[in-house]
Each structure stands twice: as C-alpha cells, then as structure tokens.
Amino acid sequence: MEPAAEIFDPNERAGIRRQIASAKVKIYRKIKYAIINAIPHEFASTMAVFGAAEVMPHPRDSSVRIEYLTLEDRLGERFYVAVAGTTGQGIAQAAAATALIKSRCEFVRKVILIGIAAGQENLRDMEKDVRLGDVVIGNKLIQYDHVKRTNGEIELRGDDLPPGDKQLLNAVDRLLSLQERKGAPAQPKPWDDYISRGGEAIRSANRPNVSNDPNSSLRKYEKGLMYERTFDKPHIHVGTIGSASTLLKDSSYRNDLARKHGTIAYEMEGAGVAIAASMTGLGYLNVRGICDYGDNRKSDDWQTYASVCAAAVARAILEEIHSI
C-alpha cells in the first residue's frame, strides 16, 4: 500500500510565511550600517569579503527588496549591514544611492563607501608615500571640480563638504594603532584574513607583483626612514580625499591639488555620498583601495586587489565600531 500523500494546510503555510516576515522585520530594525559600491568588481569584492547577502521585504512595501549581511563583532555579537549594490560611477549616482538606501532603511545611521582610487605618490617620504595596494580613509573630502572661474582665475567651492563620521574615524584610529607597534609588519591585522578570502574568491584579486608598480624603482626616500610599514600588504593612510566626476590621468594637476589641499587620494563618488549623507542625517566614511597614481601610467592591474583591500578594511572598521 502506498503511503498517504502529505496534506499541507494553506493556513499553516501562511502562518509560517508571516513568522519569517516578522523575524526579518526585526532584523531590519537592527540595521544601523550600510555599504555602497560603485562598480561591479568593487561589489564582487565586497560580497567575497563580507559574505553572502540575504533578502528581506520592506516592512511597508513587500515589493521592495533589501539586501543585508550578517556580521559578528570582536565580542561575537551579531549585527546587520544593508547593501546598496552597484550604482555606477559618478557623484550624482552615489548621492542617489545614499538617499535611496536611507529611504528604504530608515534605521540606518552610518554608511561606508567602499571602492578604488588613485593615490598621491611621495617618492621622498616613506611615511607619506601612498602606494598601490594601500588603503586610504578620508577624514576630509573636497570636490575639486566644483569651482568658480573668473577672468582666468579658479576658486575652489567644493571644500566645505562634511567630514568623515567621528565615531567611525575613532574606530579607524584604534585599528591604526596596530601599525604603530614595534614589529607591526610581522603582526597579523584584522583585515589580513579577509584579503586572503577575497583573493581566493575573486578572479585577478591576488596582489600583483611589485614590478607592476611603476614607482617601484623610482622611490628615493629621504624622510620617514625609521617609519615601519609593510611592503607586501596594504598600509592604511588617513587624510583628505579629492572627489570629482572626472577620471584623473594628469600628474601635474594631481600634484597641484596635493600642494593646495593636502589630498592623498582621488575618486569619483565620495562627494555625492557626503552631500546625501549630510542631508539625510547619516554619518559616512570613504574607504579606498589604491589602484593607480592618477597619471598617464594608469592601468587596471591593481583594481581588483585594491577593491578587496578596501572591503577588508571596511569590514574591520565595522566590527571595531560595533564592539565599542
């Protein structure tokens, strides 16, 4: 005799669905952080470093889907992070993505922009030299293509953007202390394992050979000789980032910006996130992996590795701030 077919109660199924939706809404209310990427390989690197995202319905509109990640802080406590996904390059696109994620995740308080950037070389000072594969975190931001032109004179008007979030930067300071310890290059950092994870999961994500760094034979350090830093792993820098809807491949212009404004990295989305975050009450932070020097030697060799490094450091920052 064949076993009787199992009978499913539609009401029971509906009840299970309601329970699942209710559980997800509880998670939604706990999402205090969000991350944004601009281009596909940045998003792929972030997903490899942070882990698979899950989807839950917006509590007010079941047709709206929100992706979120589950992380654990240093104390083993779970917390949740919303994901904006890819938005496309440009200040306007980044501003729209920031405003959108705030409108859909009303309990989000802080947003981190993760991506790649050009770095400001300093071939004389080891401490200040931003190398390929390093990570730059912005405590200040300028929009260098927001200018006033008058009779041949150019006046910058994009230097009043809100700075990086103080609480997130405090977490960065604690992570930076790892670079100040004696013998720091030999000590593992919280982001090292995440970089390895990204390198295994994403194509072309392993650290390129030093010969692929066009500055490798040009450095003649005269300062910072006693400053210990890693040469085969990313070094973290904190400083002013320049943002514009312009792809920078001009060393003279880059150096002029550095002299006038102290910029140490250059990208194409940060100003949009800063403006939208300020208008919607969000704190923000800009985390950038360095993939070129913003000049005519620009190539794509370091892009994916730099994306992985930025995502790894961003995850370490989130775990650190949630442990406070």
Please estimate the helix content.
25-40%
**What is the ordering of alpha helices and beta strands?**
HEHEEEHEEEEHHEHEHEH
Characterize the main sheet: 5 strands, mixed, barrel
Strand order of the largest sheet: 5-10-9-6-11
Based on the model shown, name its key terms.
single chain; 324 residues; alpha/beta; two-stranded antiparallel sheet; 11 strands; 35% helix; globular
Summarize the model shown.
This protein has 324 residues and is of the alpha/beta class.
Protein model, in words:
With 324 residues, this protein is an alpha/beta fold. It contains eight helices and eleven strands. Strand 9, helix 6 (251-261) and strand 10 form a beta-alpha-beta unit. Helix 3 packs parallel to helix 7, helix 4 (166-180) packs across helix 8 and helix 5 packs across helix 8 (303-322). The mean pLDDT is 90.
What's the arrangement of secondary structure elements?
Layout: H1 10-30, E1 33-37, H2 40-50, E2 54-58, E3 61-72, E4 78-86, H3 91-104, E5 110-119, E6 135-143, E7 147-150, E8 153-156, H4 166-180, H5 192-201, E9 236-243, H6 251-261, E10 263-267, H7 270-280, E11 283-292, H8 303-322
Parallel strand pairs: 1-4, 1-5, 5-11, 6-9, 9-10
Antiparallel strand pairs: 2-3, 3-4, 5-10, 6-11, 7-8
Helix pairs in contact: 2-5, 2-8, 3-7, 4-8, 5-8
